[in-house]
Amino acid sequence: MLSTGIMGSPLKSLVHDDDRYQRSFRLFLERSSEHQCMRDFIHSKLPDILSSIGDGKSHLNVIGVGSGAGEIDLEMLNELHKKHPGVTVDNEVVEPSSQQLHNYKVLVSQKPELNYIKFTWNKMTASEFEESWKLSETTKKADFIHMIQMLYYVKDPGATISFFQSLLDKNGKLLIILVSGESGWGKLWRKYRHELCNTEISQCVTTGDIKSLLDSKGVSYHSFDLPSQMDITECFTQGDEKGELLLDFLTEVLDFNKTASPELKDGVLELLRHPDCSMESEGRVIFNNNLGVIVINEPN
Ligand code: SAH
């Protein structure tokens, strides 16, 4: 997929190079409080959200969409288990990256205590999963569905949400996490959406956008803000390999530093350290990585 830089040079989307995407994602996790702020949410707020699901059943169906290596999924499943001890769980994992799926399987194999969970591995995208679910004509419903940092990669986030919401059983919950509209990401995308964002498979969507969409459809939801930060100091050191990798992650452009026009590069770097996006503290540039959580119930 190509998008055009200011000087007409084609920019390639990072998502087409899974190896580099995964490396940049790992580095992002190291440089940010991304997973820590999710863990805080999972331990403080999620237990209450999960307490009402299942409607007294002894078996729960869970679907994770875009699970990555599963660290966050397992953390949520653990809270689910604490709230519903003695209940067995069928966990459908939907993840197109074979590398990530492999990492997830390795993680599970190290935890024999998870034997109350049956894992089903679906190496596919959300829309492929939707297609195969519809073809199977199953009447199965889900009690808990989550899509964490995933909706950027679908063509029509609204349609994806509607489909997964339609799978919810009585008292079921759909949990969405994306960057907040007020984060540095939101600011970056508002200014450079056309230069950076790949319209086909990766989009600049925030919880602000999803809330407007749900409001317009009259779908009710609960939402939470998760403060989070990312240290992007290395992006400002010329030739720094890790800085370049982080810059790829921030722009979602493959080899941004080598392929973007000088104008685009200067503009993006300037905005990244602008107070709209970042604050400077003890010589570090700290990017606003705030996330938003949206929780939707079964449709009425
Ligand atoms: N939920 C994990 C991973 C987030 S990264 C976490 O928060 O740590 C986004 C994940 O979505 C990646 O693992 C990527 O492979 C996956 N993904 C990309 N396109 C997707 C699609 N169309 N459908 C489902 N998952 C997708």
Automatic annotation (TrEMBL):
Matches recorded under InterPro entries: HHMT-like, SAM-dependent_MTases_sf
PROSITE patterns: SAM_HNMT
Name assigned to this protein: Histamine N-methyltransferase
GO terms classed as biological process: methylation
Transmembrane segments: none
Recorded GO MF terms: N-methyltransferase activity
Binding-site positions, substrate: 34, 289
Subunit structure: Monomer.
Keywords of this entry: Methyltransferase, S-adenosyl-L-methionine, Transferase
Pfam families referenced in this protein's UniProt entry, alphabetically: Methyltransf_23
SUPFAM superfamilies reported for this sequence: S-adenosyl-L-methionine-dependent methyltransferases
